[in-house]
Amino acid sequence: MQKIVGTWRLVRSASTAADGTSMPAPYGGEKAMGRVTLNADGRMMAVLCDGRTDMPAGEAREYTSYCGNYTFDGKQLVTRVDAASDPVRMGTDQVRDVRFEGGLMVLRPPMRAYGATPEQRELYWEKIADV
After folding, report:
1. CA nearest 112: which of 8, 44, 18, 10?
2. Is the pLDDT of residue 115 over 80?
């Protein structure tokens, strides 16, 4: 089992529509910013945002953050949220499928609507520090 404990930097994001077609990458694509820290004691935090300096007219900056206690069984990361930028997440379990590709940790949340269209997102993380 790969070690997930540490601090990870978002290096790439991808999104696919329910019919399998590619969608614009979330959080500003190449300018996406994010950090995830997973402590050995089972506590984690995640912060992601659109890192573009200027936003196109009419487009809102995408941002999310949450933290909580987590479990990891080698394939799924489950976080019980106890603080979040979106109050709807409070008390929920955030489930992420986890796989490793070429030294990157890939987190895949369940398909859901981000705005009007359901999307399947994948977030690619590079470990930058051991905790």
Report:
1. 18
2. no
